[in-house]
Design goal:
Number of helices: 10
Order of helices and strands: EEEHEEEEHHEHEHEHEHEHEHEHE
Radius of gyration: 19 Å
Shape: globular
Helix content: 25-40%
Length: 312
């Protein structure tokens, strides 16, 4: 089968297509024929420097495809099932390939409302948004939620999840992307290139921040007493917890993890028409270097998806 690999850290050009043996599912695993996967910032980070482990790993954590074989002990999925998920994260998964083995309980059935291309755009960013908005911030109806980078991969799904929870949602984005984010359900938009968001936004209950850096301390300025800042950018953002606590606020870095229950919630939202992943670019697997170069610009809206085999 074809898979993407690299021999050294570096730019997108280090990625290459190779032929490797097709894996076999182990106990409680299934073999998935990959129809689509997607590019996330963590893929770029691991390609360029190896992530936290500092070593080369097979890239890709999103998958949408069809169950090709089942291992011993699998009772929840069968050959032919259309599935999607975020296998093994934060451990390596290797979904940049024609086939991948996945723990059966890291997958759910793909809702009919989504194509495989759309479904591949959901898992990692969708689970990040869900775990930030629902599991960590526990957003309630009527609360005010500020989502930074609201047109991005995590941001555009966080906006929709917060709206589905009944929140009033404010998004930061360039003016050119305001119509896109408003179409997702955002109630208020702030052009961060024109104004300082902390001066333009009335106090909020929750901030979801995929940006990091100076955005963390600035975001504390807009939180109501008892409010929470969920930082998604880097483990270094954990320093915000002490700064927030001194002001009667909560803050900290959140890392996404595989969770079938949350994935089922995302599938249900998509099936109900309340979650619409946006795919800005669709490229075949062999153009993975181009996809990574585009991702590094930080200027895409929604997700970049890689298709595998027949058009998904």
């Amino acid at each position: 089968m074809r898979a993407i690999t690299q021999d050294e850290f570096g730019g997108p050009e280090v990625l290459k297509v190779v032929e490797v043996e097709r894996p076999e599912p182990g106990v409680a695993e299934v073999l998935v024929r990959v129809l689509a996967t997607s590019v996330n910032p963590t893929d770029v980070w691991h390609r360029s420097s190896g992530g936290l482990a500092g070593r080369i790993v097979p890239l890709g954590w999103d998958v949408s495809g069809v169950v090709e074989a089942v291992g011993i002990g699998v009772t929840t999925l069968a050959v032919g099932d259309e599935v999607f998920g975020m296998p093994r994260h934060p451990a390596p998964a290797g979904t940049y390939a024609e086939y991948v083995t996945v723990p059966a309980r890291h997958l759910v059935r793909k809702p009919g409302a989504l194509t495989h291309v759309q479904a591949a755009a959901v898992p990692l960013v969708g689970m990040t948004a869900w775990q930030a908005v629902v599991d960590t911030a526990e957003v309630l109806p009527g609360q005010r939620v500020l989502v930074h980078a609201a047109a991005g991969g995590v941001g555009h799904l966080a906006v929709q999840i917060a709206k589905a929870r009944g929140a009033y949602v404010i998004g930061t984005a360039r003016a050119a992307k305001h119509d896109f984010v408003r179409g997702l359900g955002a109630d208020e938009l702030v052009d961060y290139t024109a104004v300082d968001f902390e001066k333009a936004v009335e106090p909020v209950d929750v901030v979801v921040d995929p940006v990091g850096g100076e955005y963390g301390p600035r975001s504390l300025e807009v939180l109501r007493p008892g409010g929470i800042l969920v930082s998604l950018a880097s483990p270094a953002e954990q320093y915000l917890a002490e700064r927030a606590a001194a002001r009667g606020l909560r803050a900290g870095f959140m890392a996404v993890e595989a969770d079938q229950a949350g994935l089922r919630e995302l599938a249900a939202l998509a099936g109900a028409g309340l979650l619409r992943p946006s795919v800005s670019t669709e490229l075949p697997l062999e153009r993975v270097a181009e996809a990574h170069a585009l991702s590094q610009t930080g200027r895409t809206a929604g997700k970049i998806v890689l298709t595998v085999g027949p058009r998904a």
